[in-house]
Each structure stands twice: as C-alpha cells, then as structure tokens.
Amino acid sequence: MVSRPRCMSVVIVLTCLLGVSASSLAATLHVDGSGKTGYSTIQAAVDAADDGDVIVVQPGTYTGRGNRDIELQRKTLRIQSTDPEDPVVVEATIVDCGGTTSDPHRAFYMQDFAGEIAGLTITNGLAAAGGAIYCRNSALTLRQCRIVDNATLTGAERGQSDGGAGGGVYCTGSTLEIVGCAIAGNATGAGGDSRETLAGSGGDGAGIYSTGSVLYVTDSTICDNTTGTGGASEVIAGRGGNGAGIHADSLIVTGSEIYENTCGQGGDGPQGGPGGSGGGIYCSRATIAATIIEANRAGTGGQTTVGAKGLGGLGGDGGGVLCVDSLDLSNSLIAGNRAGLAGDADSGLAVLAGRGGGVWCTYAVIDHCTIVGNAAFGEVTDGKAASVGPGGGVACTSHTVVTNSILWGNTSDQIADHDCANVLYCSIQGQTCLENRSNISTDPLFVEAGYWADARDPQVVSRSDNPDAVWVGGDYHLSTGSPGIDAADPEQMHDSAQTDLDGRPRLAGAAADMGAYETQDLVPVYRFRSLVTGKHLFTASESEKDKLVNRDFHLWEYEGIVYYVYKRAVTTQLKPIYRFWSAKLGSHLYTISESEKDNLIDRYSTDVWAYEGIAFYAYPEGNQPEGAKPVYRFWSDRLGGHFYTIDEAERDLYRANTGTWAFEGIVWYAFDTLYASDEPQTPTTPQSAAAYEFTGADGAVSYVMQLIALVDGEEAQLDNPIIVFDTASGRMRMAVDLDAMTVEMTEFQVETGFVDHVASVTHLAAGMIELPVALSLNGFFDALMPRGPYPVESRGLSFSAAGVVEAASDETFRIMGAAAMDEGKFDVNLTLDALEFELDGTGVINDSGYPDRLDVTMDGPFRWTRRGQDRLLATTIKGHTLELYVTSVQVRPTGLWYGKNLSETQDERK
Predict the structure, then answer these.
(1) Which of 256, 611, 618, 854 ranks highest by number of CB atoms within 10 Å?
(2) Is the pTM of this model over 0.90?
(3) ∠ CA 898-904-906 to the nearest 5 degrees?
(4) How far are the Cα atoms of 167, 591, 615 from residue 610, in angstroms, in the given order?
C-alpha cells in the first residue's frame, strides 16, 4: 500500500479524476532490467501503471532509453527500490542518466505528478535545467534517495545567457519534500561569455533549485555542490551562481546537514562580476531548525581585465545562509562558512568583499544558535584594494532579533548592522552589546573549537582570510563550567517537547543554555562483574565506582561505562530508578516501576530485598526523546540475579541463552553516547493530538488591503483604492485530536506574490490635480498565537466558531515593495499589528488520508483585521504633498489546505 501523496493546487484535477480510491486498487509492478520477472525499463512500468500503483526497481544499474528522461505526467505513483531503508540497496539501485554535452539526459521529468520516489541513486544526469529531476506543477516526495554527480549545461551549451539551474533537482510551481536524502556533488553550468553586453550568470541551486514552490528538507545531507562561474565580458562580467546547496523561495529545513557547498566566482571583465551568494542556502523565506550549516562558501568576485582602469567584482554575501526576506533560525550550528572575497582591483578603489560569513538576512529571528568560526573578509596584496566585508558571523538589519545564542570566533566581527535592544541573552565575543546586561562576553568553553587550516596539512592552523584555507570542524557542546550554561532567558517558556540540536530536552537546568546544544546532567553508569558470583553491579555514583576500583578490585572487575543517565530530574518526563540489594541472593535489582518498588518494600523482608534509594533518573517507555535507546532486563533463576544492557548485540546473545536467562523486556530508556543522536529529528507529540502542517492550494488565502490618499493634508479621490493580493504560499499548523474531537490552530503564515497596482489620485483644490501612482507590493502575515481548541462535529468533521477578540502582539502584517510616481521610485516597508481576531465561518476536515495526512476546506473561520490609518508612504510630487494610508488590511484562510502529519516519526509513517 502506498501512503497518499501530499497534493497541492496544481494537481487537484488528478484526484478528482480518479473516481475511486487509488489505494484500494493499488498494484505492485517490478522492474528488473532483463524483463524476465517484470518490466525491462522504468518507463515501461510507468506507462503500464495506474494511479496509486507501486513500482519496485530491483538492484542494478539502469541506463539507456526507458531508464532516463522518464516522463511522469498526470500520474499518482510511488517508485522505489526493494528496500529504501537499506543504504546498501539504495547504493546498488542506480539510475545512470549517461548525459553528455552533445547528448544531455536527466532521470525524471514530471508534470502534474503526485507521488514519491524512494531508495534510488540517480547519477550522471546532464540537462538544460534539473540535472537529475525536473518537476513542474507537482507534489513530489524524495525519500532516502541519493542524487549525486549530476549537472546542468552552461549558458553557451544551452544557447542562452545563463547557466542552467538545479544541478540536482529543479522544481517550479510544486510542493517538494526531501526526506532522508543525500544530495551531493552536483553542479550548475557557467554563464555565457559576451563581448558587447552583460555576460551570463552561473546557474543557481546546484543541489536543489525551487521556484514558486514550497520546499521541505528533513533529515537530509546537502553537500559538495557547486554553482557555475559568471561569464566573462568586455563590458560587465556575469555573477557566479547563487545557492550552491539550496536555492528556494519558501523553505523549511529540519534535522539536516548542509556543508561544503561552494558558489561560483564572478566572471572576469573590465568590471568583474559579483561572486555567487548563499553558499549553503539562498532563500526568500525560510524556517531552519536543528540543522548544521558548515564549511560553505560564497563566491569570489571576478577579476578586472583592464588593470588600473578596472574594478574587481563584489564578493558574494552569506557564506552559510542568505535570506532576502525573512528567516527563522533555531537550535542550529552555523560554523566555518565564508563570504566571498572581493575581486582584484588595481585602481585603488574600494571593492566590497561579501557580507555575512555565517548569515546574511534582511529580517530574522535567531534563537539558541551557535554561530562560530565564520568569516567575511577582503584581500589586500600587492597594492590591490579590497575592503573587509562586515558581519563575519551575522550581517542583518536592526529589525533582526538574536536571543540565547553564541557568536564567537567569527572574522572580522561577530554581528553587523544590529540593534543591541534586539540582542538578548547572548554570548558575543568582543564586548558587543554589553549595555544590555543579559549579554556576556566570556569564553564559552566549547569542548573543542574548530579552526581554519592549511589545505595541504590540516594539522597546520591557517588564517581565515587565506583563500585556500579549509575548515576543520569542532565539538561545540559546552564544557563544565561554561558561562553559557543555564544563562539563556530564564523567562523563556520551554516544554518537554522542545529539544536542542542533539534532539535532547532543551531545559536541563535552572534555565536553558545559550547556543545550539543543551548541557545535559548526564552521568555514566558503570558496570562491574563480581569475581565471586559472576553477577553484575551497576552504579552512577563516582564514589562507589572509585571504591570498587581502588579498594575492592579483588572482588569486582570493572567492565566500563555502559550508558548515560541523569543524576537529577531535569524534566518531568524523567523518572527515578530505584535500587534494591538482596543479601540472600547476593545481587542488585533496579526498577523504574513504582508498583514494583512498593511491592518489594511491602512484601519482602530486608534480607530478601533491601531498598537502597534512588540510583539515577531515566526515561520511561513512551516518554523517551529522540536519540534515547532502550535498556533491557533479564532474570536468571539459576544465578539468582538480573542483568541489564543497552547493547542490542548483547541483548540478542542473552536472549538466545534461554536455558539461563529469561527476557523481561524494556525497563527504561537511556543514552549510549554522552552527546546526540547523529541525526536529530522533530520530537514526537506525547499527547493524543497530532500536529499537522497544512499547505494552501490556489486561492487558499484572502489577503485584501484598502488605501486612502491625502494631498496637502486633505483627503483626495483615489480611483482604485482596494488591493487584492495573490497568494504565493500559505502555511498553517493545527493540532488535531480526533479522539477528543477538537482542533487548535497553532501557527498561520502567508506570503503573497507581487501585485502591480495602478491608481490615480485626484484633488480639486486650486483646480484639478491628477497624480498617477504605480505600486508593486507583496504582503506577508504571521500569526504565532495558538487559537482554540474548537470542537469538531463528529458526523461531518466540521468545526466552526464565532465572535471577535483582540488580536495578539505576534499576529503581524508586513507590506513590502516599491512605489513609482512622477519618475521617482520609493521603497515601501510597513509592519502592522493585527487589531482584531474574528471567528466567523466553518472548516471541514477530510480524513481519508488519516493519520498520514488530513485535508481541510476552510471558509474562515479565522480572520485577522487591522483598521485605522497607517501611512504607507509620503512624498512631494508636482509641488504637492502626497500621502497614502492603509485604512484596513485583512487576511483569512479560504479554500482547500493540504496537511501532513508532523507528530509521527518517519519510520512510523511508512
């Protein structure tokens, strides 16, 4: 059976045409290459498949016609290897596109497609755009795939100015989910050269290029991707490609690693081209959580070709991340990234190097991040002029908020263009923002900091402004005694579901720690074996361990650390482990069960089972976080004692010895390493309510703004006062509990496309004055205030509400863009708090895909409004003062929203 695809607006027609449930008729088709036990090519299986079918590709290398340029149009399918969860199978199931400059090919072309590709390796693709995969108007999930060593054509090869975009994956007008994938070693083509005009740009998005789409990247690796260089020109050279790892409009990244991606250099010319920006990520709007972004590079500016008369190219911005609109960055490590060098300039004119070695952003909320070892710099050699690019760690606007974070060891400065009033509870090197007393500037005492090294010998430390230096990663957990421990905002609310970059509880002390990693009160559990009885003793006490090692070594053999637990209950999810001693049996017993503890105390004398107290704290089954592993208990009648292990191989060995040991199951959860699981994941929701993230279909949001105009302080006639925005993307999160039959909205975000709005202002004072106005605007709305819960009607699964309440402070409109009038152009940037939250309308839930997905049709019931008179712009035109004011702005969900379950782990959802 195939899980239902997560469809979007462009493929609604597909689901309507099916008529019957695809899952009820699903068949499995096999591809084996020879055709003896199935289809000989993937395309043949696709052509034969009906909607909802599963195509299973046997291990092997698939090349040639029918196994490349595979067309997936108006289909709903899953194509997979025999076992997408087995890396050996994935590496052995290869789609080799065999693309060349003279004969380009990619693996898949999809249009109006809804489905999943899982467990395949796609390589050697070469195409004009989308080297491995090109998708248009589709809802695609890539799961456990390897997209490696694919590329796009250069501008010259594709007969255009710019190099092709999307070396690995190109998607437009789609919803793209990438889960557990490796996207590595892909490249985009260089821009075309030009003698008389601006040269072409290098292709954008070497790993992934997503435009007009929503891109989700979860538990994936994006590495070693490279965008193309800018073309050379005898006039103005082209820029290097942007977004070497990811280039996206709307992006959500969770639990991933993005490293060693490199943007292309600007082209050479009299004026060198700019280097590519956004080494790891180039985006318009992004939410990034629990992710490592490390050792990425923006591009170097191009060189001038005319000596002292020329100008070198600008260095690329945002070595790690560049977000041109809004960024929400949390619980992440940003380390060892570099902004681009400025191009050579003999003229002595200042040429700007790139800004934002770690992060470049217009507006951002950065919380609980560790931003270290990043660099933004210029190069000054042989009299060539270059200036240092500010913001080695972060280059942002004054509206950016940075909290509970560590900025350390960045070059040349830690943060630039900031407002210290918005920098709170941070550890920042260089005495920055210490006027805010919540900040500190003391060595954070990392376990082991990374460093820049000589590329020829990683043991030799190098300067970060050496263009050939390489980054050697470190360990950015906080050591004992770090001033960052328990130093985050003590008023910040943390619940048990919130985790750090390791996926472990965020609040493990009096307050949370600064930075991406939370120092856990973890202590080792030591294991000893009795040299007399052969039974085992487990202790988390250092003094007891020392006594057994140093004094009682003739009785006990030390076997080492077996796992890690807590010395105190730092979260309510932790429970005590009780220890008992039996003088009669000569062995210990450990239990997390309150009833077992009480039974042993009440029923047995102390010579049978004597209670010794709480040994340590651990997680009971069902409340364990990601990364915790089960501890198993065994009992031996013959030996008269228990044995405990976290090691699965040891567990299997004891279970096989049924003559001696009886398996009693899982007793609690602990950690087998001091630090994280290697791949942090979104924690599961312990309550019965499941969290769903909804993506709006076409027309799923109504966003309307009304204007008035004033001329010389008096209201004038505005012939076209209402602006209706078209939604580019909408995202909503709701907690849905179909046991309790309630729904609660927890988050709502909207981004519109740009709308061109032309109006004319007429004023009759002193004769008729007519002032034309042209606006190009886009709108945003963010609501982070939970609303509900609201009851769900059981028969029709509808929910409704009515009434008007005051809006919350974090429910905000933003209007951005430009205005043009009388040959002048003005920037527009207006932020408005919603004033009213109105409940009016009905939502209807479609649970046919439950629990993996839920769709909801909204007619309301949520509406945010601001009414008043807020100035959008003011200017003088034709001798008169013209002002435009926003008198009302309103947003509400309408139409169809597609929801995916965020509460289950990926394995459970399969």
Answers:
(1) 256
(2) no
(3) 90
(4) 67, 13, 14
